[in-house]
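note to self — DONT lose this again. spent like an hour looking for the file last time. sequence + predicted structure for the chain T wanted, 214 res
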Amino acid sequence: MAAKKKNSDFFWVSFSDLMTSLFFIMLVLFVLTVVYLRLEQNKIIAEKEELEKIVQLKEQFKVLQSDEDFYYLEDCKKYVATSLMGIEIFEPNETEILCKYKKTTIDVGEKIEGFLNELQEKYPNFSYLIIIEGNMGNSYDMKFSADTKFGYTKSYERALAVYNLWIENNINFRKTNVEVLISGSGFNGLCREADEEKNKRFSIQIIPKVSSRL
C-alpha cells in the first residue's frame, strides 16, 4: 500500500509540475501574442499615417497649378517662374544677375517664401528641401564639355548669387522648417533649352520630406 501511495503521490507531483509548465508556456505565448498584435497595430497606424501624408503631398502643390506666376513643365516634373521663362538673366560665363532682372528675381523669391510659409502653417509635420540650381548656357559651337569643372563652378556661383540677393532682401527660407541646398549643374542636366542662350538661368526645386522611410 505504501508503494502504491508513493507512486500516486509521485504522479500528482509530476502532474502538478506539468500543469505549471503548461501554464507558464501559455502565459508566455499569450504575452508574445499581445506584443505581436500591439506591434502590428502600431505598424498599421504608422502606415496609415504615412499614406495620409502621401495623399497630402499631392494636395500641397495644387495651389501652384492655379497660380499664373508658375508654369508646370510636364516632361521635367517641375514648376518654373513664368516671368523668367526663356530669359537670359546672366551675361555669358558671368555670375552676377543682370540689374534689369533683379527685381523680378526678388519677386519670385518672395512668392516662393509665401508659398512655403503657407505650407508650414497648413502642414506643420512636414519639412522641405529647397534646391537652388544654377545653370550655364554653352557656346554656339558647344565647345564646353558637359562635365567641365568651369561649368559646375560658375553655375554654383550663379545659384549663390540668387541666394545672396534673396537674403539681402529679407527672403529667408530657413525661417521655417526648410533646408536650403545651393548647387550648380553646369552645362549638364535635364530639361535644358534647345537654345543654349536660354540656359543662362537658375531653377528651384521644392522637395517635401515625409520620413526616413519614404
